[in-house]
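stage 2 :: seqdesign
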């Protein structure tokens, strides 16, 4: 499979309405976004995650901008869109193509594991009920493995 095809897999796509690629219907995705509390929940998730990144000796130097705020905003908008919220991410950035957008960075097993550690803490801190906790976590863990681009 080419990187281009990989970049289009649902794990990192925006799953636009009517694309027919997703496991669940658009209505179910929208209800997931709403069921977990909408935008404030995704903002809390990403804020907690980036608080961890800010102190991480491996991850922090990977971020090109001095201010992590814009990177946090991009991840927040992507995740909101992925889970059925507004499509603000793609309106501003176009198709996610996340593997392609991570190509300039060395995402090896160590970087992936550090990313997963901070995200695990952030997801746990939300205290979501099941099945939402597991759905969110399983997706993020899978997506992190999928983003590795360096042995
Ligand atoms: C596996 C370890 C990962 C590492 C080390 C990593 C690192 C990075 C870095 C350094 C950036 C550039 C910061 C910026 O300017 O936006 C970035 C961007 C981004 N990452 Fe990751 N990332 C990882 C996994 C993921 C995963 C699993 C997702 C999605 C579930 C994700 C979503 C994003 C998004 C949406 C952007 C902004 C893309 C854009 O619009 O330019 N990343 N990541």
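stage 2 :: out
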């Amino acid at each position: 499979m080419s990187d281009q095809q990989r970049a289009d897999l649902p794990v990192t796509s925006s799953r636009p309405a009517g694309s027919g690629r997703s496991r669940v219907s658009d209505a179910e995705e929208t209800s997931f976004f709403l069921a977990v509390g909408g935008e404030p929940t995704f903002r809390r998730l990403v804020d907690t995650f980036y608080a961890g990144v800010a102190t991480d000796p491996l991850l922090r130097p990977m971020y090109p901008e001095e201010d992590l705020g814009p990177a946090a905003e991009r991840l927040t908008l992507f995740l909101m869109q992925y889970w059925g919220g507004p499509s603000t991410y793609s309106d501003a950035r176009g198709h996610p193509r996340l593997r392609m957008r991570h190509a300039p960075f060395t995402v090896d097993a160590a970087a992936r594991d550090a990313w997963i550690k901070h995200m695990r803490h952030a997801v746990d801190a939300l205290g979501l009920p099941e099945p939402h906790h597991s759905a969110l976590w399983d997706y993020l863990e899978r997506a992190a493995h999928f983003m590795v681009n360096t042995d």
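stage 3 :: structure notes
- Confidence is low (pLDDT under 50) at residues 1-8, 16-22.
- The chain has eight helices and no strands.
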